[in-house]
Amino acid sequence: MGVMKFVFWSGVIVGLLLVGLLLSTIPSESTEQTSLFESENQRKSITFLLGSDKPGYQYFKLAEEHFLYSPKEKSDELVKTCRSLEDLIQHLNNAKDKKYSTIQVVLHGNPYSGLSIPINQNGQRATPKNLMKAMMNNPLTRLKSNAVDSTTRINFWACGIGKNPFINIALMQFFTLPDGSQPKIYTSPHFVIFKSLPEQAITARLNASYWPYFYKRGYRPGDLEIAQALSAQYPDAEVNWHEAIKKEKPSEEKDAFQNSFHIPVSWVVVYPSKESRPEIKTNAQKLNWVKNQSELMNQVEESNIPLNKFNWTVNKIIHTNKNGEKVPAIKAIGMATVLCVLGETDEV
What we know:
Blueprint: H1 2-23, E1 44-49, H2 59-69, E2 77-79, H3 85-93, E3 100-106, E4 109-110, E5 114-115, H4 128-137, E6 153-157, H5 165-174, E7 184-187, E8 191-195, E9 204-216, H6 223-233, H7 241-244, E10 257-270, H8 283-291, H9 294-303, E11 311-320, E12 326-344
Parallel strand pairs: 1-2, 1-3, 3-6, 6-7
Antiparallel strand pairs: 4-5, 8-9, 9-12, 10-12, 11-12
Helix pairs in contact: 1-5, 4-5
């Protein structure tokens, strides 16, 4: 198992050669976004909502209202049935010679754990690692030129994904056409908010700057400690940290608020026998085992979250391999929580 994953990370080195070039294409927080909705021709536009709302939340509901009725950003068509990248590509491939000017893709995601959808139906979640792995193994249907060409704009609206170069590299590859040309792909570097404003009849799309704070899952510090840490880490941010971390949803005012989510990493090492597995009874032994797994440390480094911000569970297990054979192994799962304070920007 460990050997297979080492091969994957060796392949990622090839992708890293593209990162320098790609970083220059990642838009900054102040990027002008009007051009993302401009049509260079008379083609129609389409929006895909890749998800549905959990009780108490209205992200997709408000996004639907925005892209149906916004005078400057509305789409001619709206699709709510796709639930994976594969579904999205298949839908575009099934278009009958109907090329689009702009394609809006609304989904959940973040720069740490990637897109909150599977790569293909019933497949793995589109994490940065899985996206890069899929890019090299080519499991997705190839995008055809039925609905897309080099003048089409595809905008991905998910929180901060534009700041992860691996996500950008993979999406650029997945949406490359058979002749090697590519549509103009944008991935939002901001946190994305859809919000009803009292002075506007139409739901607005807002961008938010964000300031992350990491801690071990299940070990949340008190509000005062978090506020002090954020103040020290981001001294130039004009944010009331004490008030922001108490609010979990945007308000009518442009007050900062917080959103929390969990980041998992996992690793399994197979051993030839039960007796060959090292002792991992104490916390020190478990952490030492984790630190000695170079490929697992690569996963942690990829997440950009410090090692000591993960809560580790390390156990001896019986692992079932691809052939159905049960073999002795050790499995580690690390869980970190990201508390992001979000502040709306004037740039929309």
